[in-house]
Each structure stands twice: as structure tokens, then as C-alpha cells.
Write a structure and sequence with these properties.
InterPro entries: Znf_ribbon
Largest sheet: 2 strands, antiparallel
Number of strands: 2
Bound molecules: zinc ion
Strand order of the largest sheet: 1-2
Low-confidence stretches: none
Keywords: Membrane, Transmembrane, Transmembrane helix
Shape: elongated
Distance between the termini: 57 Å
Organism: Chitinimonas lacunae
Strand content: 5-15%
Protein name: Zinc ribbon domain-containing protein
Pfam families: Zn_ribbon_3
Length: about 80
């Protein structure tokens, strides 16, 4: 485990860390796109977990209804 300097905030970061723990800048392997996707997914997850249960039910219900709608359309064609 080597330490390197974060290009963004100049903190010492493990070169094996996917992102800088200080500022979230992608580190490991400089896989910027992948790290950005992980960061975005994490952000979406945090928003989802932080959302009120009523919103989760509404969004979840809409997603299920949309999925079933597509399935019915595909099945009846
Ligand atoms: Zn940083």
C-alpha cells in the first residue's frame, strides 16, 4: 500500500483507495470514468436512503408499474 498525493486537495491518499477520502477525487488506477460512476452511484444511493419512505414507495411503485407496462406491451404485440 503506497501513499500518494491527491492531485485535487494535496492530501496523502492510499494509492489503492478508489477515491480520495478527503475530497472524493478518483485515485486508484486513474480510472476516472469508473470512479465518477461509482461516485454518482454513491450519491444516488445516499439520496435514495435519505429520501422519505413515502417518496420511496411512490418512485418504487412507478418503476414497477412502468416495468409491468412495458412487459404487457411486449407480450401483446
Ligand atoms: Zn483529495
Amino acid at each position: 500500500m503506497a501513499l500518494m498525493t491527491c492531485p485535487e486537495c494535496k492530501h496523502s491518499v492510499s494509492s489503492t483507495a478508489p477515491t480520495c477520502p478527503s475530497c472524493g477525487h478518483p485515485i486508484a488506477g486513474s480510472q476516472g470514468v469508473q470512479a465518477e460512476a461509482v461516485k454518482a452511484a454513491g450519491r444516488m444511493g445516499a439520496i435514495w436512503v435519505g429520501a422519505p419512505w413515502a417518496a420511496q414507495i411512490i418512485v418504487g411503485g412507478l418503476m414497477v408499474a412502468g416495468f409491468l407496462g412495458v412487459m404487457i406491451i411486449l407480450a401483446t404485440q
